[in-house]
Amino acid sequence: MSEAATSDLRDAFTQIHEEIREEGSEFDFRFSLVDHLFTDALGWSRTEGEGHVNFEDDRKDVLCFDDSDPPFPVVVCETKRPSHDLALEDVDQLETYMSGVGSAEYGVLTNGHEFRLYEYRPDERAVRSIDSFEIEDIATADELGAELRESLDELDVLRQDRFVNIGDAEYFRKRVREVPVQYQPGTDDEGYELFVDAVKDSLDELSDVMMEFFDDYRDRPEGSYPHDFLETTYPDWQDWREYTGKSDDAKKTFCRETAYIVLNRALFARIAEDKEIVGNTRLSGRGMAESVERGDERPYLEALMDTYDRIDDHYGDLYELGIFDWWWVSRDKRNRFSSEEKRRQAKLEDELDYTLGVVLKRINRFDFEYVNRDILGHVYEDYLPKQERKELGEYYTPIEVIRFMLDSTGYRPTEGIGQQKILDPACGSGGFLTEACDRLIQHYLNKFGKTSIHRLDAEEARTILERAQENIYGIDINPFAVHITQINLLFRTVDLYDKVTEKDPHYTMDGFEIHVADTLSPTVREKQEGSTGSDSQQAQIQQFADYNGRAQAFIEDRNEVDRIKDEMEFEVVVANPPYVKTQNITGPKEEYAERYSSIDSKSFDIYVPFIERGLDWVSARGSLSYICPNRVQTHEYAEDIRELLTEEPITHLIDFKDVEVFDAATPYPSIFTVDHESDSDDEVKCARFAEERDGVLEEIYHLDEWETPSDVSEYDLFTYSKERMRRDNEDDHLPSWKPMPDEERQVFDAIVEGGDARLGDITNSVFQGLITGWNKVFVGEVVGEADDEGVVQFLREGGDEPEPVDEKLLRRLLKGSEIDHWGADWEGLWLLFPYEVEDGDAELLTRETLQEDYPDTWAFFKNHEDELKGREGGKWEDVDQWWAFGRSQNLAKMEPDKIMTNIMSDYNRFSVDTEGKYYFIGGGNAGGYGVDLMEEYAPSSEDHLYYAALLNSSVLEFWHKHIAPIFGGKYYSYNKRYLEPHPISLPENSPDEEILESAREIKATREQITDLEYKTSDVRNYLSDYNRSAAVLDLAQSIDLSDDDYRQGPIRKDVKMDVQTTEKVYQVVMKRGHHLEFDDERVRDFVFEMLTAQDRRLTRSEVLNMEVPSSADVVELMDEYHGDEERIAELEEQFDELRRALDETILREAYGLDLEGEEVVDEFLEVW
């Protein structure tokens, strides 16, 4: 070491010695150490990526990093507080740290007095002492003796310049397999985290390069091989995505999936290399170094493709070029390029080669020898977060659900599953199949009497591996999903493969039976037997099959699936099929409709034919378990599949209701299981969930009896007759399954028996609300009063400024949520209604009528003509009467007598409108529905109250919640399908006068509440009875307002104590330090309400000069205001009492339920 370097080190230790204090903290000492030794003397930077030192890490005291990307730790320094004496356990701690880091060559242990230097030996996973000395000896020596000088010389290995600017070839040789990739839950593992970070960065960079390839290929002319192949594969990929989830940016997702596959293949090759399943590849170490030194044109890209060829001999399915290798152009295709296209291709491949160099250097440093299936599973979860896995096509099924479903089919390690074939026909990322693989492995471990894979001999491992390849089947239409499944199964079996190749190095895997195909498409044989049309799916790819091996492999995979469909049966079929409405896909719907008897309408969900196809695959002694939307129990399009299922031995029906099973919003799943070996021919084990409960499925599965435990409130367990399910589905009024406990079914049936008709029998129609097609124009608020011409200022929902329209064309509007039982809480919305209703018909006002009779409204429409013509993707561009609503149904049904309800609610809320006072909107799961009763059942307007009373009762709420679909927050659908079946007890068979009288009183009470709530919602509603002869300035006792701009947000009320008089002083605080003070709380409250009612910024003058009544009148006004608030509370209590009494009458006398029935209704509604 040079004299200058030795002097720098001595100066550093001298300064550290001078600054050290026995009572000082470890952090203070660490700061001195980094500042003087590592930064000043050893040259470490404070800038990340330049060979930097970090001493702010919570787990490692001081870490020095090299300049690689990402930076790797190369020196670990463990510091202790100065008062701590170094001991053996401190050395052990340093050794543990360095073992976890893996890439660090040297370690330091010091307390500011003693300084120890260690070398890390990765083969032994241990540290060896190099030297130690006392810092005081260095700092206080007049001259350094030979021993102390030698100690300082040893520190030369810690200099920063030894770890930066290393050439590529030397890097691959020197920095190879340093960091063991391990995973220990609950522990800090620097190596594992470094690996996850490296993989994340690599995926991002490869994705960017693939985007460059994509854009360049798309820009090339037709006839160019890369352009044509991409144009062939990419549209089909988009079609496949429709089955497995759409992406906001399809191109980005396609390129990211491509990058993911490139990275996965490289990682698996490294794993196989480090486990010595294959010989050394060119992707790491000496092989890569020699490629770089030879000066190969693109050493990293060539090494990658060479590795593909080598690993292909061991696991062909993963490395066979396929659809996601669209970016690769073989030599023979490249030779056909023009000189310009060769130049473009070379530029792209140079960029990819550079990026691959960065990626391969990163993973060069990791040692995968100890990687097992658990580690790889965690890596996958950590470097691809759940949201991105969903974006890339993975549909996450929780492991608890997977285990319950496999348990319910009998696919358990303790059963005879060794030769059972299991299929997931919508395998996605392989959640079911990887768990099945784990169970198959455990089954054979039990059979062979071994506690782990590592205790198996090679022949036993080979038996398990081959059984897994022979018996585990998966199909998915998305090639990327299939790749993920293959990777996951490889991760699960890599230890078995490792064990087999120890004895037979030339052993190769046949591959798992995981295939890319449309599970639902008819096979060639089915087409010949039926009348389906030609095979249009992937027709473009077929054109490439003759001269493109990637496309040919895809076609062959699909043909293999045809054989699986035509010839095979399975002991177990499990799936979480796609939830996609057919109107959202462009697939071969007509072929599906002809192939599957369960499809009986143009609109169906794709999971329905998946169920039918799965049933076709189940063997005579097999089982099936699906998780799919619980709409399968209730929806009209699922009627035929319900009929098919009731012919099968259903054993379980688990309805999660609105309890979240997945992380994101889902279509409310349910699980059903079919078991051909079931002992029970008729009873179905049912469960329904009211709330979340950890570990609930495992808990349920292990119960001795299928009964709800006495201490459980989150779910109900009961059995339900399969014959009753069949009869439910044949119900003339509502074909659906209606599983419920026996005591509830008895009440449910009693309600039906107590009814004389169904709601649908006594109505002209149950109708949906209006659909304007563009509420931003047709819906808004009125600002101010109408002028003498009947014109008002209309602030549309999509506007910033009010515009004049004709008041005559406005109607009060409800959006649905305002409709409550016995009334509506109108929120001031108006509908611009350009129609004339006469004799039950609605006619759109003509252009001439609008121009002549309603010129302001016509001007309004003209102002927004472009918006209205642009509706529905421009559909209205060429329509002459473009100011019409988007849909014309039910326009004339708003003004006649009607009962209204909100389409989505957590309780029955029916309101009578006998004045045509309200219009309401509808569509989808928003808005409202109306009930138009036949005149013979409701001769007068008031008769509607009787039926509203029944519909609002707890009896029909109980009944409704057993037939209607549930949504989040225990909201139920109140649309036509689920309203019309309601059993109605007609007036002649009920105490109709008593019910009517109670209904009148309830309605009147509700109207009083509504009127008072409106009045108290704005204190200005009281001003008309008082003379506004004063200003706020006159009401206030003191004023401290020195600004001229007061926003609404900070305005608040406060109270303080006058220290001299001990009287309370009531304040309106405009903002900090700005306030008005009053001696009467009521006056303060009035001023506060007046100011906040302005809903805009106020100047000082506007605040002080606001016109108000006198102080005495304000007190009187506020007493009236508070009196109205108290009256509301009284009326609400009266309203509830009247409802309870009416409810009792309806329950007992209209429907004939007894006390026991009433208890069943009450207990159910407490939860639901």
UniProtKB/TrEMBL annotation:
Residues 54-131 form the Type I restriction enzyme R protein N-terminal domain. PROSITE patterns: N6_MTASE (PS00092). SUPFAM superfamilies: S-adenosyl-L-methionine-dependent methyltransferases. Pfam families: Eco57I, HSDR_N_2. The keyword Transferase applies. It catalyses: a 2'-deoxyadenosine in DNA + S-adenosyl-L-methionine = an N(6)-methyl-2'-deoxyadenosine in DNA + S-adenosyl-L-homocysteine + H(+). One of its GO terms (biological process) is methylation. This is site-specific DNA-methyltransferase (adenine-specific). It comes from Natronorubrum halalkaliphilum.
